[in-house]
Amino acid sequence: MSAVADWSWTQSDGAQGQLHRRRNRERQRHGSDQRCRIPERLHANQCGLHRADLRHPGSDPETGDSFTYGFVATPRFLPNLIVAADYLEITVTGALGPLLAQPAAEFCYDSASFPDNSADIGVNSCAGIRRDATFNFTNGFELPFFNLGGTRVRAISSNVSYSTDLADLLKLDGDLGTLAFRANIYHLLEYTVSGDDEFTAPQAAENTLANPTWSTQLTALYNIGRYSMRWTTSIQDDTIILSAGTPITSEVQPIRRFDGYARHDLSFGVDLTDNTHLQFVVDNVTNENGVDGVNGVLTGNYIDNVGRRWTASLRHKF
Q1: pTM reported for the whole predicted model
Q2: What is the C-alpha separation between 237 and 256, in angstroms, rounded?
Q3: What's the pLDDT at 234?
Q4: Of the residues 17, 24, 43, 174, which has the maximum number of CB atoms within 10 A of its CB?
């Protein structure tokens, strides 16, 4: 029988990190407020409306089709080099998701079949809406999961990895440790969403902040004896802002795109004993916060809401 004990400490900096800690203190300060307590099985946005997410017996199961074709190459002329690439297609129909309060009300009161809009979206969202004596939304929404429609993704994922013993590489004696490199390049060809399973009204969602056309992750690892070090760089390409599947225009808002960015993470580790491991991690080394600087702050889009942070952890197995 064995057990593992973990201890960790994290410190962050930057304006976003300070805001994050301040909000946490606010939550702790109001944690005993009866108005903010969330009953079991209910969900709330801090002190917002409480709702119950229920399974709808009339919902259809999600279905998915996927196709993947790829290759792996290990050339003889360079041992320990691995090159791989995969082409993938994934189509999900009948995707299940929760019906939120605001859209539930919109689907209900905008429906020609009010007060039962089951024919429109497959479930009757009107039945779960709760209002008080002044006709305002109040706690007690009972909202079902329902079939959201379809999603189709096509992409190419490429990977390269290589590791070597430094002493062998440099033709030297002794233990100089091992060095390894890994790279992943992901090219998103298509990300389409639709309100129905037949994709009769598809909307493009690729080349956006959430679904970039190009993204890359580079990792370098070094190990020698009891010590290890890792550096990871995540790179994202320039992206645009879409509205209903089409690029947003300056008539809607002045910010229409985001520049690409790179985020870096660093970690050090040491095995103090056979059963004890100490690790020090710096996430977001260069303290990247807003995407495209001010643009990210104005639109509420952040690479990292907390900012640079240091974490020290100790693991002991006994």
Answers
A1: 0.69
A2: 15
A3: 92
A4: 17
